[in-house]
């Protein structure tokens, strides 16, 4: 009768499974901890060729996998929460809805940016992407995306500064009219 020998990953999981489960239980609820433990085990088996030798190295490797599994789970939960919030707002808009021209100054300022900068700002602030993810969508390296975003923020800040005549001049507004051009008793209102 032949006895199958445990793989090094199985041995490491058997030795560390209780500690790994406690790691998850201290950070999540009991049901989520069990799911995260199962995902950690699956990942460890899938990455068996990366398993290091030595008891302590093996333990650290498993906890590194566990940490990544937890971080991925937390990111997914945040994405689901943001999506659920957006859907709730779409399905049940507030009773006190905003007027159609709310934020028109910001939208106009964004439209005045270079098209690539404007799209970067929209992806980050309207679609909820990180700077790096928005840059990746636009085919930009992370450092370029960060620099472009800083440039866009500075341009928007300047455009939206109080007293900036460019920001306060909307193409739909009337041009400045010199009241001294009117003679006599004519009364002009609403034009400055």
TrEMBL record:
Family matches, as Pfam families: Sigma70_r2, Sigma70_r4_2
GO biological process: DNA-templated transcription initiation
Residue intervals of the RNA polymerase sigma factor 70 region 4 type domain: 105-156
GO molecular function list: DNA binding; sigma factor activity
Alphabetized UniProt keyword annotations: Sigma factor, Transcription, Transcription regulation
Annotated RNA polymerase sigma-70 region domain residues: 23-79
Family: Belongs to the sigma-70 factor family. ECF subfamily.
Annotated protein name in UniProt: RNA polymerase sigma-70 factor (ECF subfamily)
